[in-house]
């Protein structure tokens, strides 16, 4: 868990450093800076797409939770530790000991980042185990689904 925690803190710190207004949000242009500071290398096309999405779907800026969804999309295969780190940030916020409620996950998936439909979010919660989702197991489900 130590590596995951330090990765989560690194993500949060990089996000905070680019939060120039101090309002807990970053712009689409700042999103690329944060990603690159974390060792990701999105293409110019991806950055343009991210910026367009931030402008059109998020009112020009994203909070940390939405940032996590962008980072998840950018992660290369084998990003298991980074996915766990993203979930551990949410866990740290709520102190749930490695689990997320299905209701909360469904809410996040329908309201943050690349929004899922109600049916897609319900299927994701079901795949994760229902009402109490162990995020380590859920990461394995996501990674397995991504290889099919």
Fold and architecture overview:
The strands form 2 sheets. A two-stranded antiparallel sheet has the order 1-2. It has a two-stranded antiparallel sheet with strand order 3-4. The protein has 148 residues and is mainly alpha-helical. The model has no long low-confidence stretch (mean pLDDT 77).
> Gap between N and C termini, in Å?
28 Å
The major sheet is characterized as:
2 strands, antiparallel
Strand proportion: 5-15%
What is the count of β-strands?
4
Structural class: mainly alpha
Shape: globular
Q: What Rg do the Cα atoms give?
A: 15 Å
The residue-averaged pLDDT reads: 77
Number of helices: 8
The helix fraction, in percent, is 55-70%
Point out poorly predicted stretches: none
The helix/strand series, from N terminus to C terminus, equals HEHHEHHEHHEH
Strand order of the largest sheet: 1-2
In short:
This protein has eight helices and four strands. The chain has helices at residues 2-18, 28-37, 44-57, 64-74, 80-94, 102-111, 118-128, 135-146; strands at 25-27, 61-63, 99-101, 132-134. A two-stranded antiparallel ribbon has the order 1-2. Strands 3-4 form a two-stranded antiparallel sheet.
């Amino acid at each position: 868990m130590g590596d995951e925690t330090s990765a989560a803190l690194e993500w949060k710190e990089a996000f905070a450093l680019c939060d120039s207004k101090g309002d807990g949000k970053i712009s689409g242009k700042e999103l690329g800076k944060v990603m690159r500071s974390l060792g990701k290398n999105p293409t110019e096309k991806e950055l343009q797409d991210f910026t367009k999405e931030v402008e059109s779907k998020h009112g020009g800026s994203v909070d940390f939770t939405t940032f996590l969804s962008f980072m998840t999309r950018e992660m290369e295969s084998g990003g298991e530790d980074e996915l766990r780190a993203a979930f551990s940030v949410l866990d740290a916020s709520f102190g749930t000991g490695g689990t997320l409620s299905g209701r909360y996950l469904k809410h996040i998936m329908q309201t943050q980042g690349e929004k899922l439909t109600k049916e897609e979010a319900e299927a994701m919660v079901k795949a994760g185990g229902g009402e109490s989702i162990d995020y380590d197991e859920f990461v394995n489900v996501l990674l397995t689904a991504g290889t099919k």
